[in-house]
């Protein structure tokens, strides 16, 4: 059990009883699998001395039948138990991961990368399958079948049995050597190169437009480097371990074992071995070699499962955002940040932020890219906690509000909007599952999405990605409809119209200003024309608020807001805006 490591043992602890039962059943099956082979050897010797229907011959036939039945029945039940454990373990792990991941800070996902969650939820969980579903039975076969077979062969002919044991011992030692620390670094480098290759292939597939525009550079170049790195690492691993692995396969292969048994029978000093006894040795030696041959893949599965278990346990041990012991409810729809600072991987993102959003008002957050606008909105939604200062929603620190209640108090529209594999109606009603079809359609109409949906054959019953694929702008409009339908008194909108055309943008601006009247709105915007009517505009630069006021006030003074406006607007529009 020490081979499993503490992390893997912890994951398997709830299933120990079923795994031990599977081991016991496989032990019965393993011993029983030898009975037909022994019976065949004895039958070959008995048939030339007695008629086919003699009791001695029939007894060996019945032994072969009984052994086959016990072998098949025991192994079937053992594999059923191990695969049932595997299904329950993997399903439980994925549920635990889903529950844990939704409570982790957003910064954890940023550090992990785009494919990180997939690696945990799919690759690492799937790596446990071979170990849990097959390793217990394989391990029993590896330990029990060679020992039982050796005992029978020693009883039959001890010298020939010891001679036949030599290639099996050499094969086992060779596999043990391949699984030792001597080759471990090469295996780890090979696996790391494989992971990097998969990650770069994923980026390549997700950015084919850039690949076509800039062949030989950027993503394409990284993929080529990853392929070369994998080729080097794999070739190095094969050059070190491949010769030994190939030699083991030859030594434990059927032709070599046949020749080895015949050679042993012909050696001087060996007792005379009959054809029937030689047949039994050949059959049983091959049965001994099969579990030894499985050691190669078994060691790879064991090392892979141990590494996956370590990563999964480390993930499940990552502290989530803490829930308050005595949750408080927001008292109104105000938002306030008091001297807030936040850093990502020790790099400051926001510093000394002070702001207040009065209930029912619209506040715009503008500034150059990388100024920290989306991070500020994420702190209000408590995607992560501040390093210092306070974020208050409804007059209560967000750390003192239960996550579920905070989610119900906020409606979010993110720049990279998404949709679940549900019907369009269900997607719009995510914040408000009890909404009527008329209410859902009204929200979609306000978000300029109703005509697009009604043109589909299944209309609002269309399943996303199965019946309809939505563009980036349509996904944004879907998110806006979802927010408008919600009863949340606070709306956080991060570039809500960045992927829409000017005409649709104007209609959505009207919906957000009029359809969401009475709600507190924070709009992160790049295009300043969309937020010129906001009651309060905050200008963020290098993580600090450098200006605040209304549109006309900010245009009237030299500053970053006026500079950004002049960069976006023709001079005629500028003159109209200040007149």
From TrEMBL:
InterPro entries tied to this protein: AAA+_ATPase, ABC1_TM_dom, ABC1_TM_sf, ABC_transporter-like_ATP-bd, ABC_transporter-like_CS, P-loop_NTPase, Type_1_exporter
Domain ABC transporter stretches: 335-567
Keyword Zinc-finger: no
Signal sequence region: none
One annotated GO molecular function: ABC-type transporter activity
SMART domains linked: AAA (SM00382)
Transmembrane portions of the chain: 20-41, 53-72, 152-176, 244-267
Positions of the ABC transmembrane type-1 domain: 20-304
Domain of life: Bacteria
Main localization (coarse): membrane
Name of the protein: ABC transporter ATP-binding protein
GO cellular component, one term: plasma membrane
Keywords, ordered alphabetically: ATP-binding, Cell membrane, Membrane, Nucleotide-binding, Transmembrane, Transmembrane helix, Transport
Membrane topology: Multi-pass membrane protein
Any Pfam family matching the protein: ABC_tran
Cellular compartment(s): Cell membrane
